[in-house]
């Protein structure tokens, strides 16, 4: 029986490869489905013979509670952008001025979701989203459902492959037809559908979406013994990956522009969406010579297709008040389709922009999506204007009626009334958000419902909510109320850094909140500190220090802290005790490319020895660890006469 199961697994994996990678199926779908059903039955009877490489894992089945965070072996960097011919020629000039004559590989920029696929000895073991480039979400079970992802490679190699998961247009059409038949809301475009599918906690749902993938690189090109980007893609093909065959090797920037012009007019012919062209220096050794900036490689650029512009009408200008009192104008539009989605609202950014572009209600305007994401008003079609009145900036808050102010150094108009309902609600929404206290079930609508019902007036009131009060509210059943109260209770155990960030102190982001909480460890110590005490913390500047002291010395803020204490909210920070104290209190900066360690591994070594790692070089930096192609940070360290170690010296010191 083991041999029969193994034979079926191998046959079905081969058929998958032929259909989804080579696009050359050798058996009909009905025969494939019959064999797959047979294998599923056999594996259910003999689960000991089911492996991670079995094609049955592609039907899904694992249901997760949440996605775990996972670190990439090496960062997934973003690319610099080019928007026109001038940008492309400037990129080409920088490259040629630095390294001389080059060839480029042009690749289609797939409009999907960037992912990494980790292989150990040729077996797919982990898949993740790009996340922030360093930390992503583990979506292994969903990526296994993509039939173009090889579960085993043709050679036992270990690396992270990088690619773009996407939804083919035909899959998108079938998905929306099914949703429409069920009376469900439709996906606006294939990219949103692909992203939503890969973030399903139930992998069976992901399997039903029929996603695909193109691979474009690996994290360590030395592993595959290629000398050029073109060779690397050919080797990925040979290993069993699916790469995009529309790539082209060119020898001049003029040929790059010709390639772009062709796909600008022919991209609609593809069965998948593209949003630009990626241009890479072909020779890998030359890539290493050119090196990297902090965020992106110097040897590649992404040309973005021009944003689609459409005409519509402004029906009204809506004002919203944020948690810091900023009053933001938004254009309410006659709904119109832009870049695959229906747009009925567009950002107007601030009132100075409205004045500068002379935007008025009932104007015909041109809109587009900034970065293909956020709708914005580009310009007014003046020849269509009739007798529209000039729009006036608000002199009173639309929420509380308080007189507005405009600070001299800002473009924003603000409401400075501390009792403004809109600010209070937005502040509570921020407090319960994922990056702060992360209270499940307390979304924007529920917060507004609780506020309107008079059950909460500030964040501390959340911890005084009672079952009997909540169960009386609309759409609040027993299970929902119980889960909500449990989530609120659980949030009391969050570290102080989460509370600080959640309180919405101006200029105090998540990272600064963590640095301050780790330094002073409890709220009472923080309340007693002055500006100079905060400025002594690396990366905390004068602006943040001034803001936090303004808040912490305010009696209302102190009363709020007192109420949080009374309700049992944790206001201390648990700091991990280092294993050693060799570098106690020392500040390190990592720069350049490390060859023996990942950034996360190097950071862990520093923290285990009592030190800390920051992102910028200053007079407070003790050591800069400089890898290959270290740039401006190394130069600044040299100018400040800061100790500099190369990677070997760093590892040697840490081992000691």
Question: Any overview of this molecule?
Answer:
There is one protein chain. It is built from 24 helices and 22 strands. With 656 residues, it is α+β, with helices and mostly antiparallel strands. It has 6 domains: 58 residues, Helix hairpin bin (Helix Hairpins, Orthogonal Bundle); 224 residues, DNA ligase/mRNA capping enzyme (D-amino Acid Aminotransferase, Chain A, domain 1), CATH 3.30.470.30; 86 residues, Nucleic acid-binding proteins (OB fold (Dihydrolipoamide Acetyltransferase, E2P), Beta Barrel); 71 residues, 5' to 3' exonuclease, C-terminal subdomain (DNA polymerase, domain 1); 71 residues, DNA polymerase, domain 1 (Orthogonal Bundle); 69 residues, BRCT domain (Rossmann fold), CATH 3.40.50.10190. α1 packs antiparallel against α2, α12 crosses α13 and α16 packs across α17. It comes from Salinicoccus halitifaciens. Its cofactor is Mg(2+); Mn(2+). It catalyses: NAD(+) + (deoxyribonucleotide)n-3'-hydroxyl + 5'-phospho-(deoxyribonucleotide)m = (deoxyribonucleotide)n+m + AMP + beta-nicotinamide D-nucleotide.
Low-confidence stretches: none
Structural class designation: alpha+beta
- What is the CATH topology classification name of the largest domain? D-amino Acid Aminotransferase, Chain A, domain 1
Based on CA atoms alone, the radius of gyration comes out at 28 Å
- The first-level CATH class name of the largest domain: Alpha Beta
**Biggest sheet details:** 5 strands, mixed
- CATH architecture call of the largest domain: 2-Layer Sandwich
CATH superfamily of the largest domain: DNA ligase/mRNA capping enzyme
Strand order of the largest sheet: 2-11-10-3-9
Shape: globular
Number of strands: 22
* Beta-strand share of residues: 15-25%
What is the count of distinct domains? 6
Count of helical regions: 24
- Residue-averaged pLDDT: 86
Termini separation comes to 55 Å
Question: Helical amount among residues, as a percent range?
Answer: 25-40%
């Amino acid at each position: 029986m083991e041999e029969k199961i193994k034979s079926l697994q191998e046959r079905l994996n081969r058929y998958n490869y032929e259909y989804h990678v080579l696009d050359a199926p050798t058996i009909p779908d009905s025969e494939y489905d019959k064999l797959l059903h047979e294998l599923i039955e056999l594996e259910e009877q003999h689960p000991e013979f089911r492996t991670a490489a079995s094609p049955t894992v592609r039907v899904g089945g694992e249901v997760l509670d949440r996605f775990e965070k996972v670190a990439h072996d090496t960062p997934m960097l973003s690319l610099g952008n080019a928007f026109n011919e001038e940008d492309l020629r400037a990129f080409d000039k920088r490259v040629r001025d630095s390294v001389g004559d080059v060839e480029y590989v042009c690749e289609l920029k797939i409009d999907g979701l960037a992912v990494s696929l980790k292989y150990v000895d040729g077996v797919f073991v982990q898949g993740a989203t790009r996340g922030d480039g360093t930390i992503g979400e583990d979506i292994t079970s969903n990526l296994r459902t993509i039939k173009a992802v090889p579960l085993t490679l043709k050679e036992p190699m270990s690396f992270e492959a990088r690619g773009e998961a996407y939804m083919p247009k035909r899959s998108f059409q079938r998905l929306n037809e099914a949703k429409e038949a069920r009376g469900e809301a439709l996906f606006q475009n294939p990219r949103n559908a692909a992203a939503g599918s890969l973030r399903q906690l139930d992998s069976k749902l992901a399997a039903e979406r029929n996603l695909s993938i193109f691979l474009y690189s690996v994290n360590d090109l030395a592993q595959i013994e290629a000398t050029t980007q073109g060779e690397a893609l050919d080797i990925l093909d040979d290993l069993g990956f699916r790469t995009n065959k529309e790539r082209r090797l060119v020898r001049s920037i003029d040929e790059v522009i010709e390639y772009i012009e062709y796909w600008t007019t022919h991209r609609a012919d593809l069965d998948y969406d593209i949003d630009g062209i990626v241009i890479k220096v072909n020779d890998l050794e030359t890539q290493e010579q050119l090196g990297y900036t902090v965020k992106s490689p110097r040897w590649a650029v992404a040309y973005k297709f021009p944003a689609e512009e459409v005409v519509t009408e402004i029906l009204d200008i809506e004002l919203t008040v944020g948690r810091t009192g900023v009053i933001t104008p938004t254009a309410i539009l006659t709904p119109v389709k832009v870049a695959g989605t229906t747009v009925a609202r567009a950002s107007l950014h601030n009132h100075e922009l409205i004045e500068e572009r002379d935007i008025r209600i009932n104007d015909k305007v041109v809109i587009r999506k900034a970065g293909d994401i956020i709708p914005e008003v580009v310009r007014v079609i003046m020849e269509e204007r009739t007798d529209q009145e000039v729009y006036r900036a608000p002199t009173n808050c639309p929420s509380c009626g308080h007189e507005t102010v405009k600070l001299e150094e800002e473009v924003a108009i603000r409401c400075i009334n501390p009792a403004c309902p809109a600010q209070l609600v937005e502040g509570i929404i921020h407090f319960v958000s994922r990056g702060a206290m992360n209270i499940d079930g307390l979304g924007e609508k529920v917060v507004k419902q609780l506020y309107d019902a008079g059950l909460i007036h500030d964040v501390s009131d959340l911890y005084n909510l009672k079952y009997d009060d909540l169960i009386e509210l609309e759409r609040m059943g027993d299970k929902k109320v119980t889960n909500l109260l449990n989530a609120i209770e659980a949030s009391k155990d969050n570290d102080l850094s989460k509370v600080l960030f959640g309180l919405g102190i101006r200029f105090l982001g998540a990272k600064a909140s963590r640095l301050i909480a780790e330094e002073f460890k409890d709220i009472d110590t923080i309340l007693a500190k002055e500006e100079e005490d905060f400025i002594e913390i690396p990366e905390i500047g004068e602006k943040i220090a001034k803001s936090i002291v303004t808040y912490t010395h305010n009696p209302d803020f102190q009363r709020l802290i007192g109420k949080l204490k009374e309700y049992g909210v944790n206001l201390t920070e648990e700091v991990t005790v280092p294993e050693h104290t060799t570098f106690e209190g020392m500040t390190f900066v990592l720069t350049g490319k490390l060859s023996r360690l990942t950034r996360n591994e190097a950071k862990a070594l520093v923290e285990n020895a009592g030190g800390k790692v920051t992102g910028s070089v200053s007079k407070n930096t003790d050591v800069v660890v400089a890898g290959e192609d270290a740039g401006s940070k190394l130069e600044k360290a040299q100018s400040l006469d800061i100790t500099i170690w190369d990677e070997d010296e760093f590892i040697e010191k840490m081992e000691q």
